[in-house]
């Protein structure tokens, strides 16, 4: 029993002993280290081998041969001559410099240092260059040097001379004699050029250079708080500030660009300290004034641009509001932008993209499928928008696309049409666009008839004469039954049915489909015959299955498409029609002959749309070939039709104008 109690007492004493040791270790403080002449090495420095947690690993010193050494940069180890904790500086000496009658050459070139240690360049007053020269130099600024180990600093020639030149901090290669080669560039202090000796230079080199470790205080006092650190080398302090704003960065950038700090460092000794401080203050005020004026100018420019945009936009809104007031009885419904987002399911299904904007598939509350064309404000034209709504809104025809509604809400403009499942005609005419399912000749013939009826209705079926001015395959839409619908009335113009000649101020339409009278007034006035010409080009493209201009044709006769087709038919050659039936060949021949009548150069030689339909629907035997359409068939030869920009027809660019 007594043995058991003794065992428990011994165990308790052992635990108490362990706790005492742990407590002693926990309360132990890091004691200063020493190495040679450097005593009391303490935070942030630590000597290699000190307990972990004592000092900062980035500031570790090494004791070698009873001398303290520090790694300033990778591979560059210096002797530590002194540590001043009050000034946060450590003085380092190149290990290659030693006392003696000869000059020992430094192992390293001093460079600008930034990181763990900072170079206080305010104390560095000049740069000393050690050089090897082929000839003796009599200049008094060149200090003759007797190197301790000549083989390390001279060339193979035993007659080489070694000199030291003390100059300004920015001294470069241009300041060195052409016969000399630079050995070392050393940052020195307390030396002024002139009347210097080797012993003066050696004394300064043995004194060493002060490096600052204010960066440690920046890390421990500012960066841990997420603040910016400003070092002040003159009073050995750091200041924690908020992150620099835009103006501060501008000031620093301009100060750096103008080399203000460089001027002060190199020529500051010529000026009084108060003068320097006053100059910097004036400079700061000037920079602030310049930046302030620039900011005010930019703000004024933005305000002016916003004013011009709003004024233009409000003027456009006034035109649209006036239009809506005058056409209150139009069939199309005015929708809000919120309605547009709902019917398109927040623009989920995109049907296509064009220069005007994007087209999305939508669904009305009634279940009706529609196509919503969202216009880009920067590319949209208010007059074209009004033309579209005013023109289609007043008509209803089986071969004219139906405008269901529209939206005008600030910068959100939209047009809502009946949905055309088969897209536009160009996909079925120009097979190189990726559609490998060509339509039958009978189907193409019926589409041609439908387009012609739609154009005839625009010309004669309304109380106003509507000229489309942009008939082309891209603007012919096809429904689920391939019934054609004339669309895109952005360039359309309304005229009285009594007007046979209309007034336009410039060509309008797509190059390659524009009637020549829109370019040259000497061949006739502009009328509904302009749409007839475009319809003729459309028929030729449907038959030829390519665009009406072949810029890469082998023969010049093929460049103008109507002339090329005319020559083929005049020589008895049919188009490549595959396994077409006799009836289909008749359809194609009728389309070609009617198209050639429609593209006659003079408007007076072209048929009306009514006559065009009559020829298309009539018997082929009753049709006769028209005169050959040619670019030179204008009576006034002073202005040749070669100047007509037909070669640009492959670019589907649209020409528009502001006048009626």
Report on the architecture of this protein:
The chain has a 7-stranded mixed β-sheet, with helices on one face. A 6-stranded mixed β-sheet has the order 16-20-21-19-18-17. Mean pLDDT is 76; it is low at 19-27, 267-271, 551-557 and 633-660. Among the domains are: 327-418, Phosphorylase Kinase, domain 1 (2-Layer Sandwich); 426-655, Orthogonal Bundle (Transferase(Phosphotransferase), domain 1), CATH 1.10.510. The protein is built from 15 helices and 27 strands. With 660 residues, it is α+β, with helices and mostly antiparallel strands. Helix 11 packs parallel to helix 14 (582-598) and helix 11 (441-460) runs antiparallel to helix 15 (609-617). A hairpin with a 2-residue loop joins strand 1 and strand 2. The radius of gyration is 46 Å and the shape is elongated.
């Amino acid at each position: 029993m007594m043995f058991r109690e003794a065992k428990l007492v011994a165990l308790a004493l052992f635990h108490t002993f362990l706790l005492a040791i742990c407590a002693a270790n926990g309360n132990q403080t890091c004691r200063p280290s020493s190495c040679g002449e450097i005593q009391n090495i303490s935070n942030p420095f630590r000597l290699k081998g000190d307990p972990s947690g004592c000092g900062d690993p980035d500031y570790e010193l090494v004791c070698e041969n009873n001398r303290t050494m520090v790694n300033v940069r990778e591979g560059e180890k210096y002797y530590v001559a002194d540590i001043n904790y009050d000034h946060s500086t450590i003085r380092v000496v190149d290990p290659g410099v030693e006392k003696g009658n000869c000059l020992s050459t430094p192992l390293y070139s001093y460079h600008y240092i930034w990181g763990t240690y900072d170079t206080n360049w305010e104390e560095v007053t000049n740069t000393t260059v050690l050089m090897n020269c082929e000839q003796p130099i009599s200049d008094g600024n060149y200090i003759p040097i007797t190197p301790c180990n000549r083989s390390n600093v001279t060339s193979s020639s035993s007659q080489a001379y070694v000199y030291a030149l003390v100059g300004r901090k920015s001294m470069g290669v241009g300041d060195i004699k052409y016969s000399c080669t630079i050995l070392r560039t050393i940052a020195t202090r307390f030396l002024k050029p002139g009347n210097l000796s080797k012993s003066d230079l050696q004394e300064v080199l043995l004194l060493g250079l002060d490096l600052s470790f204010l960066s440690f205080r920046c890390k421990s006092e500012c960066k841990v708080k997420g603040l910016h650190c400003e070092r002040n080398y003159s009073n050995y302090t750091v200041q924690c500030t908020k992150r620099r704003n835009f103006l501060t960065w501008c000031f620093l950038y301009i100060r750096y660009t103008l080399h203000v700090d460089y001027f002060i460092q190199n020529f500051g000794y010529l000026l009084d300290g108060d003068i320097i401080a006053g100059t910097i203050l004036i400079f700061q005020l000037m920079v602030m004034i310049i930046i302030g004026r620039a900011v005010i100018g930019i703000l004024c420019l933005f305000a002016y641009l916003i004013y011009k945009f709003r004024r233009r936009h409000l003027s456009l809104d006034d035109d649209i509001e006036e239009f809506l007031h005058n056409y209150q009885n139009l069939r199309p419904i005015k929708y809000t932008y919120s309605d547009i987002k709902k019917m398109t399911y927040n623009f989920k299904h995109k049907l296509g993209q064009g220069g005007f904007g994007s087209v999305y598939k939508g669904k009305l509350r009634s279940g009706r499928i529609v196509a919503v064309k969202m216009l880009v404000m920067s590319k949209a034209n208010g007059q074209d928008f009004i033309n579209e709504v005013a023109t289609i809104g007043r008509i209803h025809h089986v071969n004219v696309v139906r405008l269901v509604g529209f939206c005008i809400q600030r910068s959100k403009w939209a047009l809502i049409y009946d949905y055309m499942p088969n897209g536009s005609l160009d996909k079925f005419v120009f097979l190189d666009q990726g559609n490998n399912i060509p339509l039958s000749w009978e189907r193409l013939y019926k589409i041609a008839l439908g387009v012609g009826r739609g154009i005839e209705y625009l010309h004669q079926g309304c109380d106003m004469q509507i000229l489309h001015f942009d008939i082309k395959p891209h603007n012919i839409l096809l429904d689920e039954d391939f019934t054609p619908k004339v669309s895109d009335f952005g360039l359309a113009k309304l005229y009285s049915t009594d007007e046979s000649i209309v007034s336009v101020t410039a060509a309008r339409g797509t190059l390659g489909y524009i009637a020549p009278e829109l370019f040259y007034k000497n061949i006739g006035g502009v009328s509904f015959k302009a749409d007839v010409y475009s319809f003729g080009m459309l028929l030729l493209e449907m038959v030829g299955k390519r665009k009406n201009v072949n810029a890469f044709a082998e023969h010049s006769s093929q460049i103008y498409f109507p002339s090329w087709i005319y020559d083929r038919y005049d020589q008895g050659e049919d188009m490549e029609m595959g396994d077409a039936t006799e009836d289909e060949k008749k359809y194609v021949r009728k389309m070609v002959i009617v198209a050639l009548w429609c593209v006659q150069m003079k408007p007076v030689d072209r048929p009306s749309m009514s006559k065009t339909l009559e020829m298309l629907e009539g018997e082929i035997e009753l049709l006769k070939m028209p005169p050959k359409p040619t670019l030179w068939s204008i009576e006034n030869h002073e202005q040749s039709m070669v100047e007509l920009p037909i070669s640009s027809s492959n670019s589907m660019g649209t020409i528009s104008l502001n006048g009626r």
